[in-house]
Every structure is written in structure tokens, then in C-alpha cells.
Design goal:
Layout lengths: L1 H17 L13 E2 L16 E4 L1 H4 L10 H14 L3 E4 L26 H13 L3 E6 L9 H6 L13 E2 L2 H6 L14 E3 L8 E3 L21 H16 L3 E4 L13 H16 L4 E4 L5 H4 L8 E3 L1 H12 L6 H13 L6 E3 L10 H4 L4 H11 L7 E3 L47 H5 L5 H14 L1 H5 L1 E3 L14 E8 L2 E8 L5 E5 L5 E6 L3 E6 L2 E6 L4 E5 L1
Parallel strand pairs: 2-3, 2-12, 3-4, 4-8, 8-9, 9-10, 10-11
Antiparallel strand pairs: 1-18, 5-7, 6-7, 13-14, 14-15, 15-20, 16-19, 17-20, 18-19
Length: 545
């Protein structure tokens, strides 16, 4: 009997030494790591990734310390190489402010940024590279230094008087229903006229230097001269060849942001612009949670998804990735109720928010994970300039719009100097030139995942789904974010570990091939439909099932 045990032990030892071969009859399988071959990008930009540019801070070519349109032109090759499909230029019109959101002339170029000829050259080069150009279009108010307003305040008989909202007693007039576009009185929104018709007040929701345009009651928009003028300005830019507009603060066009007035107005404006450019790209900013954004899809094809960024920020700072995909799918379901072909513009931070790097505590691993999530979930991604190098910034607004760091200060011929930065300095942020040569940099994470999204139709176009067996109530493995991307019968599983500790995920399905791994993550086969993904801190795996 003892000899029998010895023989059995020797047989087992021989099997182990020889390696355990697959034997479906016995259920024994050889463990095997799934390979992740490098994929070559074919150069086609399938993902429609946009890049937001604050021209003043981006690139200076004339040495005056202010970014300019020629700087944008010179850096289009950089953006094209990064994989960007479109750029959104923050306001480029003449304005008395540094930011430009109080426009003085809707059809001219801010002289700080250059000339119309400079703009035309920039637009031509963008088109040659297959990069769309959309302009920030501020249609709910003008600057108080706009010639329309300067003329309107002088006399009740001014031809521009009806372009704005005036009243001698706004509270009484609103209660009597005599003032369009507003149904309640807010004293902070009404400002005294200081010249000409000084007995009047005018409406400016944001401040006294941004008077609101008067588009009349929603059923009478067609008779508003301000509406006609804004449509002419939009037509001007579309005929020049721009691809569309980013519309600022659209929930504040009509005062009641939760009524149907703003979506109805936006649909009218979109339809009007479509007569000049069929299929014009138009995206709106509704700085609210998803349930308040959703109704605006009745008016516009694209809107920014602030909720998805706010939930992702929480997930990253709480090591909890599990629930994020469901949140995003819930938002998409809300949007689909109003427009079946909605464009969900996903994003991290933008020019109105504290920068991603700062709200993530300067943690580069979390910044990398934020980029990886943005570029692997469904949606149409937007990248704020400098996010790809981890620029930092906290409010007030100027300091989330600091100069881009192209190189070390001593060698940076493009660095703008209009503002002395507090956060994005050489001491705090590694410049682009350094990061381009570092394979482990944040920039190269952006580049790798942009190439993946551009090059792979599943990642570019695929719908997002929750994984099999998803249990919202379960608390196990909450640091792992798991979801499918599905397109034309092909299914990918995407796994992200949002924590600083090791994690694993069991895949109860055949893995056909590895698509991408990042952060030394691995997938090991233990059976025909049993695989284990090992995810180091902030590791990522994408597999085809």
C-alpha cells in the first residue's frame, strides 16, 4: 500500500514538472497568460475627440505675452499628432475682459489674438489636418460696451432699445407680465442705467457689465431684432467655414432655466443655423446635474455631461470605481428620452472648474486613471488644454486658465506671460517637452488611450453595458470599475483599478484576445471560461470576449 502511494506521488510530480496540459475530461487546464500585442494606429481619427483652447494662455508667437491665433495655427500639428479631431476656441471676439465672455462685436477678432487673416489661416490649416473648429458663441448677453447697448441706453427711441430689457420699475412690470423672458424679480439682476435714460434699469443676470439680450416671449422670437442679429452673426462664421458653436450658459437665456423656453429657443436657433450649414455641430453648456441637462436635448444635439465628471472625481478620491458605469448609463438613459441621437460630451474639468489635477490632490496616478476612464467609457470626449500634462489650478477663474507649459521657462518661446501662474509652474508641473520623452508620463497615457480610441471602432463607437452579474448592492471589489463596450457583435471588457492597492477580477467567459493592458496588469487563463485579471494599483485591462 505504501509503495502505491509512492507511485501516485511520483506520477503527480511528473505531471507538475512536465506542465499540466489541457484535459477537458478531467477539468485540468494549463495556466496561461493572455498576450497583449501592441496595435498600430492607422491614423484615422474615429473618436471625434475635441480639445478646448483658451487662446490667451495657449501659445504666443509675437512676444507680447498674450496667446494668439497664429499660436493655435503653429500648434495644430501637435494636436493632430495627439489625435484630436476638433478644437473649441473660447471667445475670440473683441471684449473688454481677459476672458471674452462679454462680447463687443460678434463678427470681428479680438486684436489681442490677431486679425481675421490670421483666423482664416488657422481655419485653413485645421481643415487640411481634418480638425474641426467650433467657436464659443455667447448669445445670452453682450458687453455693456457693445455698440448696440451703448446706443440703446441713450434713448427710448434707439433702434437698439428692443435688443435689451429695460424697465423703470422692473418688479412691478414683471409682476404685471410686461417684461419678456423673465417671470420673477431678482434685484441683483437689475442695474441702473448710468447715462442717457438714467431713470431706467436693465437686466443682467451675471453682472452689470453683461446686459441680457431680449429675444421676446418664446412665441415671438421671430420678431426679435436681437435674434435676427445673432443669427446673422452665426451665419457669418458658418459661411467662413467654421464647423459649429459651443453655446455658453444656455440655461440662462430665459430666466427660468427649468421651463421649456430655453430648449425651444435653442431648437429654433439650431434649425436656423442648419439652413446655412446642414448638420452643423452645436453643443450647449448647462452647468447642472444630468436630470436638468437632459431636457435641453430637445433643443440641441450635444451637451456637456458635468454629472459624469463630478461622479468620477468622487470615485477617484474614494477608491470606488464600481458604481460609475451605472451612473453614466443612467445619465445616458435620461438623455435618450429627449433625443435618440444625443451626443454626450464627456469631460474632466474645464475653464469654469477647478482643474482635474488639483481636485485629485496632485496625484499623477489618479490623473492617469481619470484620463483612462474618460477615453474608455462611452461618449464624445473633450480635453481641456493642459490636462494632458497635468496642469493644476484652483479658483478664481484666472488660475484655472494659466499659461500652457510647452518647455522649461528658459527655452519656452511660446509660453504666455499675461498672467503670473500660481499653480501650473515649472516647479509643480512637468512641461510637455519633458513628458513627451518620458514613456511613463501623463501625456503618454493620454496619447496611448487616444490612439486606442481613434484606432479601434469598438472603443470609438461601442455602446457601454454593465458586466454580467453586476450587483449594485455588493460591496466587494468596489475599487474595480468594470464595463463592456459593444459594437457590431464585438464585445470588450474594460477593467480599471481605481485604488492604490492590488485588486483582481474573475472573468467567467472565454477571453478571445487581449486588447490593451496598462500598469503591468495581467490576465491569466485557468479554464475554458475562467480567467483572472490581476490589477496592480491603478492598473487597466481591456480584453475581447
Amino acid at each position: 500500500m505504501k509503495r502505491t502511494y509512492i507511485y501516485l506521488w511520483l506520477a503527480v510530480l511528473c505531471i507538475l514538472l512536465a506542465g499540466c496540459k489541457d484535459d477537458p475530461a478531467t477539468g485540468e487546464y494549463e495556466t496561461e497568460k493572455v498576450p497583449f500585442p501592441e496595435a498600430d494606429w492607422d491614423g484615422e481619427k474615429r473618436a471625434d475627440i475635441f480639445y478646448e483652447i483658451f487662446v490667451r494662455s495657449f501659445a504666443d508667437t509675437d512676444g507680447d505675452g498674450i496667446g494668439d491665433l497664429n499660436g493655435v495655427t503653429e500648434k495644430l500639428d501637435y494636436l493632430n499628432e495627439l489625435g484630436v479631431s476638433g478644437i473649441w476656441l473660447m471667445p475670440i471676439n473683441p471684449s473688454p475682459s481677459y476672458h471674452g465672455y462679454d462680447v463687443e462685436d460678434y463678427t470681428s477678432i479680438n486684436p489681442d489674438y490677431g486679425t481675421m487673416e490670421d483666423f482664416d489661416r488657422m481655419l485653413a490649416k485645421a481643415k487640411s489636418l481634418g480638425i474641426k473648429v467650433i467657436l464659443d458663441f455667447v448669445i445670452n448677453h453682450t458687453s455693456k460696451t457693445h455698440p448696440w447697448f451703448e446706443d440703446a441706453v441713450l434713448s427710448v427711441d434707439s433702434e437698439y432699445r428692443d435688443y435689451y430689457l429695460f424697465s423703470q420699475d422692473p418688479k412691478a412690470d414683471i409682476e404685471a407680465g410686461k417684461i419678456p423672458m423673465t417671470d420673477y424679480y431678482n434685484s441683483g439682476e437689475w442695474h441702473s442705467v448710468t447715462t442717457g435714460t438714467t431713470g431706467y434699469k436693465y437686466m443682467g443676470m451675471f453682472s452689470d457689465w453683461m446686459p441680457e439680450l431680449n429675444y421676446h416671449d418664446i412665441d415671438d422670437v421671430a420678431n426679435s431684432p436681437a435674434y435676427a442679429a445673432i443669427c446673422e452673426a452665426g451665419k457669418f462664421w458658418l459661411e467662413k467655414g467654421v464647423d459649429g458653436f459651443r453655446l455658453d450658459a444656455v440655461k440662462h437665456i430665459y430666466q427660468n432655466e427649468n421651463s421649456n423656453e430655453n430648449p425651444r429657443f435653442l431648437k429654433m436657433f439650431y434649425d436656423q443655423m442648419s439652413k446655412t450649414t446642414p448638420g452643423v455641430y452645436m453643443i450647449g453648456e448647462v452647468l447642472s446635474e444630468a436630470e436638468y441637462v437632459a431636457p435641453y436635448y430637445a433643443g440641441l444635439p450635444a451637451l456637456f455631461d458635468f454629472s459624469s465628471w463630478w461622479r468620477l472625481e468622487w470615485a477617484l478620491n474614494n477608491d470606488s470605481g464600481k458604481w460609475y458605469p451605472k451612473d453614466l448609463l443612467d445619465y445616458e438613459a435620461m438623455y435618450a428620452r429627449y433625443r435618440s441621437d444625443y451626443i454626450n460630451a464627456t469631460k474632466l474639468s474645464n475653464h469654469d472648474e477647478e482643474r482635474t489635477g488639483s481636485v485629485l490632490g496632485g496625484n499623477v496616478n489618479k490623473m492617469k486613471m481619470a484620463a483612462k476612464v474618460l477615453l474608455t467609457v462611452s461618449g464624445s470626449p473633450y480635453i481641456y488644454y493642459g490636462e494632458e500634462i497635468g496642469m493644476l489650478g484652483l479658483k478664481p477663474d484666472e488660475y484655472v486658465r494659466e499659461p500652457f507649459l510647452w518647455n522649461a521657462t528658459s527655452s519656452d518661446i511660446y509660453r504666455t506671460k499675461w498672467l503670473t501662474p500660481m499653480y501650473s509652474t515649472d516647479a509643480n508641473v512637468s512641461n510637455l517637452t519633458v513628458q513627451q520623452s518620458d514613456p511613463n508620463s501623463l501625456y503618454n497615457v493620454y496619447k496611448e488611450f487616444i490612439e486606442l480610441r481613434n484606432g479601434d471602432p469598438v472603443m470609438a463607437y461601442g455602446a457601454m453595458q454593465l458586466p454580467d452579474g453586476y450587483d449594485e448592492a455588493a460591496q466587494d471589489d468596489k475599487q474595480v470599475m468594470a464595463f463592456y463596450r459593444v459594437y457590431n457583435g464585438t464585445k470588450y471588457l474594460v477593467l480599471h483599478n481605481l485604488s492604490s492597492s492590488q485588486a483582481s477580477y474573475t472573468i467567467n467567459s472565454e477571453v478571445k484576445r487581449g486588447v490593451l493592458e496598462h500598469g503591468d496588469a495581467t490576465v491569466t487563463r485557468y479554464g475554458p471560461t475562467r480567467y483572472i485579471a490581476n490589477l496592480p494599483a491603478y492598473g487597466t485591462v481591456i480584453c475581447e470576449l
